[in-house]
Amino acid sequence: MKQMKRMTIISLVITGLMLFFTQAQASGKNEIIQQMKSRVGAINQLLAAGAVGETNRGYLDYIGNDRPRQNLISAENSDRKKLYAIIAKNKNTTVGVVEKNMGLLKAKRAKPGTYYQDTGGKWIKK
User: Fold this and answer.
1) Beta pairing, strands 60-62 & 115-117
2) Taking the chain, what is the end-to-end CA distance rounded to the nearest angstrom?
3) Cβ pair 39, 24 in contact under 8 A
4) In terms of DSSP bridges, do strands 52-54 and 115-117 run parallel, antiparallel, or are they unpaired?
5) 121 CA to centre of own chain
6) Model confidence at 75, in pLDDT bands (50, 70, 90)?
7) What predicted TM-score, i.e. pTM, was given to this entire model?
8) Is residue 36 predicted with pLDDT exceeding 90?
9) C-alpha distances in angstroms, 51 versus 7, 84, 118?
10) Following DSSP, what letter does each residue of the chain receive, concatenated?
11) Distances from the Cα of 73 to the Cα of 15, 29, 32, 60, angstroms
12) What are phi and psi of 111, to 5 degrees?
């Protein structure tokens, strides 16, 4: 009987911890998404100007030697990496798989006149 109570308590503690970490992960994801939303306008301007493009791994990179707004690009790529890690965990896959899929998705969704990388790493203007 004592063992059964102990197992029940352990089970409840584990369930509670799982709920806590799931909620914390969702909160972290929402915060990342909000930060990314706040940068969309500035990033779209850089994409439209041809200063940056979407890589085949789902990140932003510079097209030429000019490196405007480095802090903005670094922050965006950092948040993307965090978001990809959350997605990978939720989908029970690797960050590498998510990066590859996001690269394909971003290439498909690229607006005319913007740059994206093909799977071989070549920059293409859509």
Assistant:
1) unpaired
2) 69
3) no
4) parallel
5) 19
6) very high
7) 0.78
8) yes
9) 59, 24, 17
10) -HHHHHHHHHHHHHHHHHHHHHHHHHHHHHHHHHHHHHHHHHHHHHHHTTSEEE-TTS-EEESSS--TTHHHHHHHHHHHHHHHHHHHHHHTS-HHHHHHHHHHHHHHHPPTT-EEE-TTS-EEE-
11) 39, 19, 14, 7
12) -80, 150
Residue with tokens 């990179």, as numbered in its chain: 61
The answer to whether the CB of 84 falls within 8 A of the CB of 33 is no
Q: What is the share, in percent, of the chain residues with pLDDT greater than 70?
A: 79
Q: Hey, what are 29's tokens?
A: 């994801």
Q: Which residue has the tokens 């998510």?
A: 98
